[in-house]
Design goal:
Layout (H helix, E strand, L loop, with lengths): L3 E4 L2 E4 L4 E7 L8 E7 L6 E7 L2 E4 L7 E6 L4 E6 L8 E8 L11 E2 L3 E6 L1
Parallel strand pairs: 2-11
Antiparallel strand pairs: 1-3, 3-8, 4-5, 4-9, 5-6, 7-8, 9-10, 9-11
Length: 120
Protein backbone atom coordinates (compact mmCIF):
# COMPACT_ATOMS: atom_id res chain seq x y z
CA UNK A 1 0.00 0.00 0.00
CA UNK A 2 2.19 2.76 -1.32
CA UNK A 3 5.42 4.54 -0.79
CA UNK A 4 6.61 6.29 2.32
CA UNK A 5 8.92 9.29 2.37
CA UNK A 6 10.44 10.56 5.59
CA UNK A 7 11.70 14.08 6.08
CA UNK A 8 12.67 16.46 8.85
CA UNK A 9 15.80 14.79 10.13
CA UNK A 10 18.92 16.76 10.96
CA UNK A 11 21.40 17.66 13.65
CA UNK A 12 20.42 19.24 16.94
CA UNK A 13 21.96 19.74 20.36
CA UNK A 14 20.75 17.86 23.39
CA UNK A 15 17.54 19.32 24.73
CA UNK A 16 16.45 20.49 21.32
CA UNK A 17 13.52 19.46 19.16
CA UNK A 18 12.85 18.09 15.71
CA UNK A 19 9.69 17.13 13.87
CA UNK A 20 9.82 14.23 11.47
CA UNK A 21 7.25 13.78 8.73
CA UNK A 22 6.22 10.65 6.90
CA UNK A 23 4.20 11.14 3.75
CA UNK A 24 2.39 8.03 2.59
CA UNK A 25 1.06 7.51 -0.91
CA UNK A 26 -1.75 5.10 -0.10
CA UNK A 27 -5.43 5.39 -0.93
CA UNK A 28 -6.30 3.69 2.36
CA UNK A 29 -4.03 5.87 4.49
CA UNK A 30 -6.72 6.76 7.04
CA UNK A 31 -7.25 3.10 7.96
CA UNK A 32 -3.57 2.14 8.07
CA UNK A 33 -1.32 1.89 11.10
CA UNK A 34 1.84 3.96 10.87
CA UNK A 35 4.87 3.21 12.97
CA UNK A 36 8.17 4.93 13.60
CA UNK A 37 11.27 2.85 14.24
CA UNK A 38 14.92 3.81 14.62
CA UNK A 39 18.27 2.17 14.16
CA UNK A 40 21.44 3.42 15.78
CA UNK A 41 24.88 2.38 14.44
CA UNK A 42 25.66 -1.20 15.39
CA UNK A 43 22.24 -1.69 16.94
CA UNK A 44 19.08 -3.46 15.89
CA UNK A 45 16.15 -1.45 14.69
CA UNK A 46 13.80 -0.61 17.54
CA UNK A 47 10.22 0.55 17.92
CA UNK A 48 9.63 4.22 18.73
CA UNK A 49 5.93 5.02 18.30
CA UNK A 50 2.87 4.04 16.30
CA UNK A 51 -0.61 5.32 15.57
CA UNK A 52 -3.83 3.96 14.15
CA UNK A 53 -7.02 5.98 14.23
CA UNK A 54 -6.51 7.86 17.53
CA UNK A 55 -4.69 5.05 19.34
CA UNK A 56 -1.01 5.58 19.99
CA UNK A 57 1.82 3.46 21.37
CA UNK A 58 5.22 4.66 22.55
CA UNK A 59 8.38 2.96 23.65
CA UNK A 60 9.36 3.58 27.24
CA UNK A 61 12.48 5.44 26.11
CA UNK A 62 10.51 8.16 24.32
CA UNK A 63 7.27 8.26 26.30
CA UNK A 64 6.63 11.82 27.45
CA UNK A 65 9.17 13.33 25.04
CA UNK A 66 7.90 12.27 21.62
CA UNK A 67 4.42 12.72 20.19
CA UNK A 68 3.06 10.93 17.15
CA UNK A 69 0.17 12.43 15.21
CA UNK A 70 -1.43 12.16 11.80
CA UNK A 71 -3.10 14.41 9.27
CA UNK A 72 -5.29 12.23 7.11
CA UNK A 73 -6.01 15.10 4.71
CA UNK A 74 -2.29 15.23 3.91
CA UNK A 75 -1.58 11.48 4.17
CA UNK A 76 1.14 12.41 6.62
CA UNK A 77 2.23 11.23 10.04
CA UNK A 78 4.41 13.37 12.27
CA UNK A 79 6.80 12.55 15.07
CA UNK A 80 7.43 15.55 17.28
CA UNK A 81 10.60 14.92 19.24
CA UNK A 82 11.34 17.13 22.23
CA UNK A 83 14.03 17.04 24.90
CA UNK A 84 16.27 15.12 22.55
CA UNK A 85 19.18 13.16 23.98
CA UNK A 86 22.39 11.92 22.33
CA UNK A 87 21.03 8.38 22.64
CA UNK A 88 18.19 9.37 20.29
CA UNK A 89 20.75 9.55 17.49
CA UNK A 90 19.69 7.08 14.82
CA UNK A 91 18.18 6.65 11.39
CA UNK A 92 14.43 6.97 11.81
CA UNK A 93 12.11 4.94 9.61
CA UNK A 94 8.37 5.09 9.16
CA UNK A 95 6.35 2.10 8.11
CA UNK A 96 2.74 1.23 7.41
CA UNK A 97 0.73 -1.86 8.24
CA UNK A 98 -2.80 -3.16 8.44
CA UNK A 99 -2.91 -3.32 12.23
CA UNK A 100 -1.33 -1.46 15.10
CA UNK A 101 1.73 -2.98 16.67
CA UNK A 102 5.22 -2.50 18.04
CA UNK A 103 7.05 -5.16 16.07
CA UNK A 104 8.73 -4.80 12.70
CA UNK A 105 6.67 -7.72 11.43
CA UNK A 106 3.50 -5.72 12.04
CA UNK A 107 4.47 -3.41 9.16
CA UNK A 108 4.85 -4.30 5.51
CA UNK A 109 5.92 -1.09 3.74
CA UNK A 110 8.89 0.99 4.84
CA UNK A 111 10.48 4.30 4.00
CA UNK A 112 14.17 4.88 3.34
CA UNK A 113 14.84 6.59 6.64
CA UNK A 114 16.01 9.99 7.80
CA UNK A 115 19.06 10.66 9.96
CA UNK A 116 18.69 12.31 13.36
CA UNK A 117 21.87 13.32 15.16
CA UNK A 118 21.82 14.72 18.69
CA UNK A 119 25.05 16.16 20.04
CA UNK A 120 25.84 16.69 23.69
Amino acid sequence: QGQLVESGGGSVKAGGSLRLSCEVSATTFASRAIGWFRQAPGMEREFVASIMWSITYYSDSVQGRFTISRDNAKNTVYLQMNSLKPEDTAVYYCATGSHLGMRENDYDYWGQGTQVTVSS
